[in-house]
Structure formats: C-alpha cells, structure tokens
Amino acid sequence: MLAKVLSATVSGIDGFVVHVEVDLSAGLPTFSTVGLPDAAVREAKDRVAAAVRNSGFDFPVRKVTVNLSPADVRKEGTAFDLPIAVGVLAADEIVPSEKLPRYALVGELALDGRLRPVKGMLPVALACRDAGLAGIIFPLANAAEASVVKGLDLVAVSTLGEAVGFLKSGERPAAVPASSPRRSATVDAPDLSEVKGQLHARRALEIAAAGGHNLLFVGPPGSGKTMLARRLPGILPPLSFEESVQATKIHSVAGVLPRGASLMAVRPFRSPHHTISSVALVGGGTALRPGEVSLAHLGVLFLDELPEFRRDALEALRQPLEDGSAAIARASGAVTFPARFSLAAAMNPCPCGYLGHPDRPCVCTPFQIQKYRAKVSGPLLDRIDLHVEVPALTLSEMAEESPPSESSASVRGRVLAARGIQRSRFGAAGPFTNAGMNPKQLKEHVSLDEASRTLLKEAVRRLGLSARAFDRILKVARTIADLEGRGKVGEDHVAEAVGYRSLDRAPVGSI
C-alpha cells in the first residue's frame, strides 16, 4: 500500500513543501528512509514506531519505505516525524486520504505520541500558504508563531492521536489564538537620558542611527562605550510588519525565538563574546544555520573589546558589512542569509586601556600599542564609518547633579525625520539608508561645492584615506545634512564627517 503526505522544511530562511511517500510491502519488517535525510530524519523510524504504538495504534509488521521528495535536496530536523507517522497509518488504511493532499503536517514526536515544537514554523507556514495548500497541522506549542500567517487553515494539535482525529472526523482539539499585537520597539530599551556627558559620542550615535552607519567607540575602561552602544536600538525606527516577519523567520530557523512568541517587536541587539568562532559569527556549520550577523539583521551587532576577537572572525565580517548578506557555501549546500545590521564596536586605545587618560598613566610601549591596534585590519576599519573617541569622565562630571540629558525619544524623532528624507530620496527600490548607497547614487545625491571638495581632498592627502573611506565620509556627510533638513551637503557637514575618522589619523601614542 502507498500513501502520500505533504510536509515542509526550511532551506536557509525560506520554507519549501516536501512530499512524503510511504510504502508498505511484504517482506521482513524493516524501516528505511530515502531522499537525502540527515541523521535526525533517519532516526525518526524509532520515534515514529514508539509513538504510533503508544498512541493506541498498531504499527504494521511489514517493510516500510519512506521517500522524501524532492530527493536531491537535503532534509534536516525532526519536523518529518508527524507526516511519516500519519503516512504509515494512511498506508495501513487507518487514516483516510481525503484531506492529505490539502494539508501539510509538521511536528516532532515524543515516544508517547505527544508533539513537540519545531524550528522554522513561520517560514514553513508561509511556504504552505504560497504553495496553495488549504492548511497545516502542527504542534500546539508553535501556535503563536504560525498565527501570523493569514489565509491558511491552522490546526494545532498536542498529540499524534489528535492529528489522526482531525483527519478522520474533522474534530479540532484547540483553537489557534490570534497573533498578539506587536509592542512598540522601544518599550524596554535603555534611555539616552541616563548617560552623563559624552556629547560627541551621543552625536555620533544619532548619526549612526539616522544613516544606518557602522561605528566604533574608542576609549578607556569605564568611559561608557558599552552603555552608549546598548542605547542605539532605542533611537532606531520601529520595525515595520514586513521587517518583523523577516527578523522572526531568522530567529525561528535558528531556534532562538522565545517560546510562545509571535512576531518580534524589538530590533535585535546581539552582543557575542569575543571568543566566538567565525562560523558562529557569520553562519554555517553542518546544518547551515544563521550566525550572529544574521540574528542581528535589521538591528544592532555589538562587538565589545573588538581587538580581542579572533582575526579570522573579524575578517569574515567584511562581506556581510559590504553586501548586507552572508553567503555560506559548504559541501552540504549553499545558502544566503540576510545580514543588514548596524555594527557597533568598542575597543580600548591600548592594551592597558589608559592611553590619553587624564588621571591614570599608560604603561604600554609604542610597539605594544601598534601591535594591539593592528589586530583590527585596515580593510575592516574602512568599513566602519564613524571612529568615535569616548574620553573618561572626570570626577566632577560623574558627581555633578546635572539635569537629565536629552532622552532617546527626542533623538529618535530627529532620526525618524532623517530616515523619512532618505525614503523619499531613494524610493522603494533604493537602499534603506544612506549607508547603502552605491557609487552611482552617491554621485547623484552628494554634490560638493568647491570649498567642500578642497577640504575633502586635503583630508584624503593628509590621512592617506582609501577610496572606500572616501565614500564613507561622503555618506556620513549626507546623513548629517539630512539631520539638519538641508538638501545640499556643505563644507561643515564634510568637516564633521572627516572628524569621525580618528583611527585613520591617530599616530601611535595618542587616541
């Protein structure tokens, strides 16, 4: 007997429909799975057999062959447990076949027949809807995530028995709750009003948020570099619905979406430890999972103590920073994960951390300082638009009872206005921010007068800037002009943008 069941899985962050064919034939009782299954899929035979028996059904004592089509695409994960079990029961004529062509089945089975949640439920549900299926049968624990998808009959079940009951009689064990409304993206974000002093760094933070620029804070320990970086998400625009869906898909596929979560409402803020590997940072591995750069998509990736990261991990950041995506190619396949994030990094000015400190002397030699800074390569620094000095606060600044500084809400208002100007400038087909402008757009939207060109040429000559750094200065100048609501980039905007290239001009022995 032959039964055909529909399921779905994920490739990259997108889902696709899989046809599960189950054949029962005479012969010694064996169970084989074909169609490029990974180890987790091959092990399904033991989970399925136990779950079927413990759910009150007889498992056929026959030769069982399972084919997963398309057979040339690798199948991974435990989501095929439920469709294989239902396929076996359908081939044994326990489950009727009327609804099988219209519903996809997804879920991991426990040995007692209960269903456990699976990764990638949102992209799987979207793929089923786009394929024209009537509905999907899935674990109840994934209900909040699946409820985002409209136009699909969502059947959430807790056990294999409930799935069989729906296919036989149409009985629905539980209603899927409507997706909860998204909160504001700034609900729990720390506020800029809590930061004392550091007006120059706050200004750079605002420019970075307005234009989608990458920035690097350089300063001694305790100067507030991490505190400032953690306030960047709070001044970014809120996620749109489409952005929420895209960010949620990535976190769902990676298996880091909180249990019971529907759509992500807050822009991601990822802060990996400096011991992270290049694979964990950029993505890949045996199962080709998204890395930190993709988990930070549409949000912020914060790298504290930047020179302490492994050199290969830092160099792997070049392509995502340039292209807004992470292309991963391995022997098992090739995928491209989105990785359009704002990089915020922090580092000390020297190994001891106190170079330029007003009260504590630096004990590092010029060679040690040069070796420490060389850990961050020139090509990577070129891709960071803003190099920002964060000096240590004086005792009077820390102890003084000054009025609260400007709040994140106030700064966010200016950021939203600047982003609106960019949206009008580029349109739907253009880059999202000034930082994403290509050379043609840069030439079209940044025209300098004679004084500005002379200033920029002198800066390039004195600092020895690369062509990429030259373009980055123009992009930052364009953002500064947008924050002021000015259509033309002026000499003052270029001068301020050049001032944010501190590591291009800093000799050994100073910040």
Query: Helical residue percent?
Result: 25-40%
Uncertain residue segments:
none
CATH architecture of the largest domain: 3-Layer(aba) Sandwich
Enter the CATH topology name of the largest domain.
Rossmann fold
Q: Note the beta-strand portion.
A: 15-25%
- CATH homology superfamily name of the largest domain: P-loop containing nucleotide triphosphate hydrolases
Rough outline: elongated
The overall average pLDDT, rounded, is: 90
Number of helical segments with 4 or more residues: 22
Number of strands: 18
Rg, Å, rounded: 28 Å
Instruction: Count structural domains.
Output: 2
Strand order of the largest sheet: 11-14-17-10-18
Largest sheet: 5 strands, parallel
Report the span from N to C terminus.
76 Å
What structural category characterises the helix and strand content?
A: alpha/beta
CATH class term of the largest domain: Alpha Beta
Quaternary state, please?
single chain
Could you please describe the fold and organization of this structure?
The chain has 511 residues and is α/β, with parallel strands linked by helices. The chain folds into 2 domains: 2-169, Ribosomal Protein S5, domain 2 (2-Layer Sandwich); 192-400 and 407-505, P-loop containing nucleotide triphosphate hydrolases (Rossmann fold), CATH 3.40.50. The protein is 37% helix and 17% strand. The chain has a 5-stranded parallel β-sheet with strand order 11-14-17-10-18. Strand 1 and strand 2 form a beta hairpin. Helix 2 crosses helix 3 (81-91) and helix 20 (467-483) packs across helix 21 (491-499). The relative contact order is 0.10. The mean pLDDT is 90.
